[in-house]
């Protein structure tokens, strides 16, 4: 294993942050796997899972069992990890710009396509290699002006040429679930089984260019750009893995999640040894546009009546909001039949706050589909 240290752009004199990446295997020897944890720095289950992954990968590396290339970034956001206010961790948004750490990744699709086009031909595998080479060049050559931009460029430089990209996140309180682009669902479906995902939420360009989509959408967009002239497969599977809730930072869960990821990597050919059969599914895919936010129309004390993981019906009461002054009780009902897969961990809410999410079967929303 090799450890690489990536220095970020200094935001002020006397201040310097670094990103650390762990590199296993040999580039080009097999599939490239990229895994990062806690891009939202206050979502910690991924960091613990990465710790368990590192221990197991170290042992596999020592035994010569890594047949591909595996890059592990055990802590993907040193900026957000340092943002604290009055003992509260603020790891989702950069305090300087207000931007979400998991949005606004630069688009180098056209630049890479123009550079690669003279070398593209009838060989799909060669087309993939050429496009990956030019994409990485364009990503690394993109100028940056801020520390946040340098973090994004570093993460994309490490990941943009990978066959599989796993971005480990979590929700507030939730069951394990995934986000994936629709064109990659056929590749994601076995991963969802290995991880035991209760639901995978699919979209084609959900808006604001989150990290996973910046890695995967290049391929279906290149397919659209070049049409029938050149064969271009969906060469990258990029998935946001939501490892339950923020408080689910426990060794048994993280150890099992790490083992499940390694089982999948062995099935993909990145690790030696006999692969386990693909497990039975415990959940399927649903449109991200069918994930319906449950909003509180009034402020008050929030108490839930239903738990994450429960199937609910349209009209079911999911929670109460109680005004402590007037004693008024407001019922929050599900707008659709679906899976209550996530809910907030705050118990006093402001008017208009999103407090839960129900994954329905039908696409009902449009526009930008992700939350803030």
UniProtKB/TrEMBL annotation:
Keywords: Hydrolase, Metal-binding, Zinc. CDD domains: M14_PaAOTO_like. Pfam families: AstE_AspA_cat (PF24827). Residues 29-119 form the Succinylglutamate desuccinylase/Aspartoacylase catalytic domain. InterPro entries: AstE_AspA_cat, N-alpha-Ac-DABA_deacetylase. Its cofactor is Zn(2+). This is Succinylglutamate desuccinylase/aspartoacylase family protein. It comes from Roseateles subflavus.
